[in-house]
Structure formats: structure tokens, C-alpha cells
Amino acid sequence: xxxxxxxxxxxxxLGETTRDKREKILLACRERDLDVLVTLAISENGLMEDxxxxxxxxxxxxxxxxxxxxxPSWHELPPHRDEEQVAKDVDxxxxxxxxxxxQKLARRKEELxxxxxxxxxxxxxxxxxxxxxxxxxxxxxxxxxQDSPSAITRLSFLRIRDYVLPEIDPAILHLELLPGIIxxxxxxxxxxxxxxxxxxxxxxxxxxxxxxxxxxxVITRLFDFFLASDAAIPIYVYASVLLSRREYFLALDKxxxxxxxxxAELGRFPQPFDVEEHIQQARKLYNQIPPESLGWAWRRxxxxxxxxxxxxxxxxxxxxxxxxxxLFSAQEREVSINQARKRLVSSARxxxxxxxxxxxxxxxxxxxxxxxxxxKQHGGGAAGAIVMxxxxxxx
Length: 395
Description:
By secondary structure, the protein is mainly α. The chain is built from 20 helices and no strands.
């Protein structure tokens, strides 16, 4: 058998494998077999193509349980407070993909804006974050303008709820799982990385990596994986990225790199991005170091967080949207209480600092009053000696 024949045999076998998987995906979608669909979405090459994703993603998100065309029209609803920022971000959309002419690009931007504004107007409690348009862009390119609003609504309340709250604190708690994963997986790398808040990972995790990956086939494959996995899995993917660059980080001289420089390096994303390798590594890390094993970082996460409520694809698919809204409201209240507590602590600290700074003045006034009293009682000389002793003691 010559090399040409061998190559053809391999291509035929690959074609048969691809066709077989395609049929399995279609069958799982027809039968609404969520377990099989999850397995296929996680497996190598995921859901393979957008024609299959167009059917599979709404099933993974449980979109079929929602009213398809709610009324009234979103155009009739009051504007959302963040629409000005939406317009600015949408104007910067579709930089890397797809490569369209000006007329088609303008239409895509209009449709993208309409999807985001519709979701925000129908659910005004949602807080738009910069980068949200990156997520919506990916979903829009797969599902189109008609099916995207329902998918984005469920994604917002049941998958990325912690990111669209009034404050960023719940999202930061996601990031704080990252050092524990690195410490358990690679103690040497953990010791090399400065002990700081891992905000360098925020841009990637906040947007499900859609802000940092500029290859459309890669980001849609990654979305297959995210929609079929635990809500914490983006943190494990980021951990995989850091671990893949361990030799580079270990070679950095900590005396030459301050915290800001190190943070910039930790936030740098490898291009091209080996998506299958990072998916497999993230799965391995998750199985070896589950979120529950991360101690205080895990215990600090709210019981209403997506990390502890709608964790799996099954949770998301089977949870009514109203439940997601109730959990959103619960987290809103928690955030409000925590912000009030922070303001109280900050005010108390300022008062303490103010008192401390004025202690000499206060003490001088007290001593002056004592001196006056002592002068009346014992005469000026005795009073002066006593005051001098007090000043030296406080001195």
C-alpha cells in the first residue's frame, strides 16, 4: 500500500467519523437527549458546525421553555440606562469576524444592537457590562437575530448572572478560585506568581473568552464546551492557559517585574489558541481540583451564585427563567448589603483616623483645662509643674 492510498483511507475514515458524529448530534437534538448532547458538545471538535449549533445551543440553554415572541414589542418599552454604552460597544463589533462588506456589516451591527437592547429593556434589572456585546456577537452569528434574544436572556440569568449585577464583586469571587487551582496543580508556579487579586483574568472570563479570542471557529468551539459544562469551567480554562506558560513565568525575574508588569504578563493570551488542548486540560483540572475543594475561596461564593445554583447544563436547561430572576434579586440584595457594610467600615476607619490625627489637639485642650483648674486650686507654680510632667509623659 503506497502513501497516497494510506492518506485516502485516513480521509475516508475521518469523513465517516465526522458523518457519524453529525448524525448523533442531530438524533440527540431530535430526541431532546440532553445527556448525549452534553457529551457530544464536550468531546473533540464539539458540535462541529453552526448548522448543528443552531439547534443544539437553544436546547442546552432551555430556550424552548420560554415564550417565543413576548409582547409588547420591545420598541415600546422604556429605554435602558445603559443603551448609550451599548451603542458605543456595538460600533466596535465584528472587528475580526466575519469579514463582510460595509453594507452587510452595518446590518449586522444594527441587528446586534437590537438583540442587546431588547434583552435589556425587557429585563431592566440587568446591568450591561463592557464586553457583553462580545458574547452576544457570538450567539447572534450562530443563532441569528430571531432566536438570540431568548438565548441571551437565559444565558444572562442562568449562566453569567454574577457578571451582570450592579457591582463587580460577585464576578471577582469567581476569579479568586484561580489561585487555589494553580496552588493545587503547580505549587512552584503558584509561589512565582505575586499574591494579588487575579483581575488580570477578568477580561477573558467576564466575556467567556470572546473578547480575547479572535478566531471564530475557536470561540464557537469553546462556547460548545462552556454551555455543556459547569459554570466554573471558564476559570479552569484560564488556569490551563497559565499552566501552559509555566516555563515562561518561572523564568521571569521577580526583582525586575513589579506587580503591574507581572499582571500584564498573566493577562496576555497565547495566539494561536490550542482550544482542544486547553479544553482537555481544563477538564482534567476540574476533576482533580473541583470547586468544592478550594476552601475559603469557595465558601465565600454566594449560595445564590451561578456557581452554586445553575452549575450544570442540566441545571440551566431545566431551571425556569423566573427562578433565575429570583436568584438575581437575591444576589442584588446581598450586593447592596455588602456595599453598605463596606461604606460603614470605610466611614468608621475615616473617623478613627480623624480622631487619631487630632489626638494631640484634644489632649492639649484637656491639659489646658486641667491646668486652669489646678491653677485655681494649688497656685500657678504647682500647676505648671504638673502640666509639664503630663506633657513629657504624653510626649
